[in-house]
Design goal:
The protein has 719 residues and is mainly alpha-helical. It contains 22 helices and no strands.
């Protein structure tokens, strides 16, 4: 019975992509509005395409080089021959998902602004539909990639000899599939870091010179960086987030499959994450129909509209998962169902916690707004304090989720009379942790929709401002934009939480992969013997890993700073040299700012990306496989906490500024507003560059470790 459920994965992929196509066609049929609105939208589209074309050219060079490296490793029999090709496919589908989402988003912003001329609900529906295209494209392409490789490898290993180190076909399939997440992770890092540098360099430049120095409103057409700012929302927050969660989604499924094989669950254990992902597609589609609002432009009402869709989807998955797991694993392993529920609940709680710390409906963000009365310094101090405080609940929730998802499958299996060896006991518990990550990501179709909706609403507000639409339209788009800031912060919290569970599952999968590659090379490697805190290799790895997120964030923050300096210099030059720019008689050179931000992002994204890719290889060759496990564990702990802190600080600063802009503490142009703009400027790279990129850093280092496990085992200098 359980084998029949695997067909749900390719069917789920087709359904997701079909519904995404339907939504995209429906959006494209809507009117973009006035000629001025169309002109602005076209400029943003042109800039986004130019950026993506240049970024993908740079990324292609990396993929070709790494493909040749992996081919060499395959020739040396350090990886199986399919890994280089799976690496390419993972990167291709990750990039494709981001490109499709960005393309639809850039076609949706003017249509959202035009729909907001009719009603708030109309604008919400268009922006959310655009986000749903992104979410469903990610899960659809992810399931398509997984299905293609699973069925191909199932056919191949059914008629060809198994690679060394694995005892059965399912072990060979999962061991091979585990390696292709490196392609998706690599593409995600380039998209997130490069897009983040672009968007925040443009945003910081536009805000510092436009708002603070020139005293003009946000999204004012006189600001030369305003188009670059709108382009950045799409290449960073849409394409970057899409690629980020694509690799989390795929990574959690392949890690769960690999741990299923290690736990002796066979194809039954692989069926669970694949079929749950498919059910999550249907639940997400149903949830989208529950997202609608009235005309009350308050965050509470709008948040309730989005929350309704997410909660409906989560409830459907919670019910369906019971029957899927019972059909696949039987009642002996029903503890896995409770692990899945743990992941679902953890995702919801982290989302609510993020909402509390970043929404201006609650005390933390309003405290930052109050601090603006005494200047920028107190705004920054208050924002950092809020971010630090916000780490408490997510860390506790993830810790409890890990404990429950590990022990429940073991305890309930033993209670049902299942006999587990010590090795099977560990792997069954780790399979539960991985299943929790799958549970958290099962509703990604709608969760990502609530996140990707934000940049579309932001661009719609910019379009309304630059097109000089009625004040009521701007009021509606501002309400949607403020909601988008909160949902974006919530989405980042969700991404960070899922990254933590996925990275932990990948570390466990790396441990099993070491044994497989050692057996393939005829070596004896007792990994567990060295996995204790008295091992100096583990301690050294932990220290290096604890440092890595801070070093990585330093590189990305400095990159934003350098790129922003170039934008600030250019905007000041245009204000100084272009006659009539402040009176509206002279036209700014928007394309120049887009070009500067694009060139800066491509140059600056290289160093952080290389650090993430090379760190596990260098540590492994220098100090051994145990040090790599320490590296991954240390970076997971410090990276998770740092990512939560940075994302929530940035979101709270942004919404504190918007709270003041609605008339509090003197409103727009007041000293308090200028102080809040400085805080928001500091928070921009926190929440949209460095913080979100940490999610990918954690998973990419794990994926690189898995792919290069054979190289580390064979050539390490310290045995």
């Amino acid at each position: 019975m359980f084998s029949d459920l695997l067909w749900l994965a390719p069917v789920g992929s087709i359904v997701a992509l079909g519904f995404a196509f339907y939504l995209a066609v429906r959006i494209m049929k809507l009117d973009e509005g006035t000629d001025r609105m169309k002109e602005i939208a076209a400029a943003v589209r042109e800039g986004a395409r130019a950026y993506i074309k240049r970024q993908y050219t740079v990324v292609t060079i990396y993929f070709v080089f790494m493909f040749l490296v992996l081919l060499l490793l395959a020739r040396l029999e350090l990886v199986v021959i399919f890994v280089p090709f799976a690496f390419i496919s993972g990167g291709f589908f990750s990039g494709l998902s981001g490109f499709i989402g960005m393309t639809v988003a850039t076609h949706s912003s003017a249509r959202t602004a035009n729909a907001a001329r009719r009603s708030l609900n109309s604008g919400l529906r268009v922006a959310f539909s655009s986000g749903a295209v992104m979410g469903l494209t990610v899960v659809g392409l992810g399931l398509l990639d997984l299905s293609i490789w699973y069925y191909f490898l199932d056919w191949y290993y059914g008629s060809h000899p198994l690679p060394g180190g694995v005892a059965d076909k399912i072990g060979a399939i999962t061991s091979t599939m585990l390696c292709f997440g490196m392609g998706a992770s690599s593409q995600a890092l380039f998209a997130r870091v490069g897009g983040g540098i672009f968007t925040k360099a443009a945003d910081v430049g536009a805000d510092l010179v436009g708002k603070v120095e020139a005293g003009i409103p946000e999204d004012d057409p006189r600001n030369p960086a305003v188009i670059a700012d709108n382009v950045g929302d799409n290449v960073g927050d849409v394409a970057g987030m899409g690629a980020d969660l694509y690799e989390s989604y795929v990574g959690s499924i392949v890690a769960t499959g690999a741990l299923a094989a290690a736990a002796g669950l066979g194809v039954k254990g692989v069926t669970v994450p694949m079929s749950m992902a498919a059910v999550g597609v249907l639940a997400s589609i149903i949830g989208t129909f529950f997202v609608r609002s009235g005309e009350q432009a308050e965050q509470g009402a709008l948040l309730a509209a989005l929350r309704r869709g997410v909660f409906v989807s989560a409830g459907l998955v919670a019910v369906a998962a019971y029957f899927l797991i019972r059909a696949s694993l039987g009642m002996d392993y029903i503890g896995v169902y409770w692990a899945v529920l743990t992941g679902l609940a953890a995702g919801v709680i982290i989302g609510l916690s993020t909402e509390y710390y970043t929404s201006d409906r609650y005390g933390p963000t309003r405290t930052i707004a109050d601090a603006s009365v005494t200047g920028p310094a107190t705004v920054i101090i208050s924002g950092i304090a809020v971010g630090m405080m916000s780490t408490g609940l997510p860390v506790l929730v993830v810790g409890v989720a890990i404990l429950l998802s590990y022990f429940l499958p073991i305890k309930l299996a033993l209670a049902a009379g299942v006999v587990l060896s010590p090795e099977q006991t560990i792997n069954t518990g780790l399979y539960g942790v991985a299943a929790a990550a799958v549970g958290m990501l099962s509703t990604l179709g709608i969760t990502l929709a609530t996140d990707a909706y934000g940049p579309v609403a932001d661009n719609a507000g910019g379009n309304a401002e630059m097109s000089h639409l009625e004040p009521e339209v701007r009021r509606r788009t501002d309400a949607l934009d403020a909601l988008g800031n909160t949902t974006a912060a919530t989405g980042k919290g969700f991404a960070i939480g899922s990254a933590a569970l996925t990275a932990l599952a990948l570390i466990a999968a790396y441990r099993d992969q070491l044994s497989i590659v050692a057996q393939r090379m005829g070596m004896i490697l007792d990994v567990d013997k060295g996995l204790h805190l008295m091992n100096p290799k583990i301690i050294a790895g932990l220290f290096v890993g604890g440092m890595m997120p801070f070093f990585f964030c330093s590189l990305t923050m400095r990159a934003v700073g350098r790129a922003a300096q170039s934008i600030v210099t250019e905007v000041r030059r245009q204000f100084r040299e272009i006659a009539g720019i402040m009176t509206g008689e002279g036209k700014p050179d928007y394309a120049r700012c887009v070009s500067i931000a694009t060139a800066g992002a491509q140059k600056e994204m290289i160093a952080p990306s290389l650090v993430a890719i090379l760190a596990p290889i260098v540590v492994g060759v220098a100090m051994g496989a145990e040090a790599v496990i320490g590296l991954l564990a240390g970076s997971l702990v410090s990276g998770f906490v740092l990512a939560v802190m940075m994302a929530n600080s940035g979101g709270a600063w942004d919404n504190a500024k918007k709270f003041i802009e609605r008339g509090h503490h003197g409103g727009k142009g007041s000293p308090a507003h200028k102080a809040a703009v400085v805080g928001d400027t500091v928070g921009d790279p926190f929440k949209d560059t460095s913080g979100p990129s940490l999610n990918i850093l954690l998973k990419l280092m794990s994926m690189v470790s898995i792919v290069f496990a054979g190289l580390v085992v064979k050539y390490t200098l310290l045995r």
